[in-house]
């Protein structure tokens, strides 16, 4: 009986050892998965653009299709358009129409087919670091680094305080706080990891200021003002028109129609296809047009129509 009891204890011990070994093996499997994970293309000697590039924000897209995996379905279908340097273009569409997917495709973050020319150079011939370092995109929920506000705006200490403060003013931060506020944000204010001590609206304003400091020729706002009230949004949009150069192209994925109704052109997407692309005034005159339908459904219909006509 003693031997049988000892044998039972030994079986339980072996089961526990086997279980610990199996759990440890999961870590080895995870390491193996990271070793064989698919990598983005490595930089090549012939993929570096000239030093003067980009000199303008001209963007031309020809039959652009995109998918999230090599064998997945297409989420963009033969999208073609031409944006001249300095134009402000709004992108609208219902949920799932492909607005954010288009911005990812321009940055080559997903699998794409077709051709994209940025300032005369085809982007699929460029190294990814060269392409993405010359395009500024502000996502809906921007991430910040732990440190000071100055470090988040100018990580490599390339600009003086006057330039950084001008960018913050242009982004609308100073319109949200007064000089006598004790907790107002300054260049020396501490930022927690991922901006945890700031509201989403404040993070978006700092991301906008960072974009103004970078002075990229192509600026993409992916619903970057969705957490900001309409009045502050108007201040930011006005600042973007005045602070950015005349050859800087701004593409805005709209959260509010008021944000893009005074754009030079509006792009309307539906189910991954480009349905309409023209000035707001022309699109609103189109019978059964998608933009016209969106405006008709809005509670601010009269204000939107006035903006499209250039009356405000």
Automatic annotation (TrEMBL):
Keywords: ATP-binding, Membrane, Nucleotide-binding, Transmembrane, Transmembrane helix, Transport
GO molecular function, one term: ATP hydrolysis activity
Superkingdom, taxonomy of origin: Eukaryota
Places the protein is found: Membrane
Pfam families recorded: ABC_tran (PF00005)
Membrane topology: Multi-pass membrane protein
InterPro entries per UniProt: AAA+_ATPase, ABC_transporter-like_ATP-bd, ABC_transporter_C-like, P-loop_NTPase
Signal peptide: none
Any one annotated GO CC term: membrane
Domain ABC transporter, residue spans: 59-296
Main location: membrane
Name of the protein: ABC transporter domain-containing protein
Annotated organism of origin: Hermanssonia centrifuga
